[in-house]
Specification:
The protein is α/β, with parallel strands linked by helices. It has helices at residues 11-18, 41-48, 64-73, 87-96, 169-173, 198-210, and strands at residues 2-5, 25-29, 54-59, 78-81, 102-108, 127-131, 158-160, 180-185, 190-192, 195-196.
Length: 213
């Protein structure tokens, strides 16, 4: 079970979160309208020293050349795409990125029909990410109806996102899918935008890891 903590920015907070046992991925958001937007050489220096986690860069309809530049500057191990990027866009982007960087494509899920849009992305990314629909790009802090995912029959593993918080352990424990690969944690573990409560995260993740889902 991969654990991704997204929406980080402060160097010390990044180091504290990365040191939490069980955290696999830390996410930086490169979407300017987001209150968690990152554009800092100090942050880039902080993530460059991380050795126990991989860094995920989150982008929305960004020119491919800019993603490649950010991937080098921030030592990205993953690129997560949250916009209307096509399978062809992903194919072209992968050719431009250094070998080894993995792709995640996010989809907003409201109904079973929304899952149909994922079919064109098979083989184009390592993971999908299923999130709650919003009127703008970005997280809402709310969950969607996870039971819809029983109708996902694709071949690409997925991360579960949207409103997962300190009180979500029981709900997660009862969720099952053969391609469920991990969870994405963000706003419900914050004390302020882009500032995560490391102690709250640590307790939640320990609970998750000690009681396999």
């Amino acid at each position: 079970m991969l654990v991704k903590v997204c929406g980080l920015r402060d160097p010390e907070n990044i180091r504290r979160v990365a040191a939490i046992p069980g955290v696999d991925l830390v996410g930086l958001i490169f979407y300017p309208p987001s209150p968690r937007f990152v554009d800092s050489a100090v942050t880039a220096a902080a993530v460059s020293s991380l050795t126990t986690v991989k860094v995920v860069g989150v982008f929305v309809n960004e020119p491919r050349e800019e993603i490649v530049r950010k991937a080098a500057q921030y030592h990205l191990g993953y690129v997560q795409l949250h916009g209307s990027e096509t399978p062809e866009y992903l194919t072209a982007l992968r050719k431009m990125l250094p070998a080894g960087i993995k792709l995640i494509k996010a989809f907003s899920i409201r109904t079973e029909a929304d899952l149909l849009q994922t079919s064109g992305y098979e083989t184009h990314c390592e993971y999908l990410l299923f999130d709650t629909p919003t009127s703008v790009y970005g997280g809402s802090g709310r969950s969607f109806d996870w039971s819809i995912l029983q109708y996902y029959t694709g071949a690409t593993p997925f991360l579960l996102s949207g409103g997962i918080g300190p009180d979500s352990h029981e709900t997660l424990h009862h969720f099952h899918h053969r391609l469920w690969a991990g969870i994405d944690l963000n706003s419900r573990f914050e004390t302020a935008p882009a500032v995560k409560d490391a102690e709250l995260l640590s307790g939640f993740i320990q609970n998750i890891k000690n009681q396999p889902l």
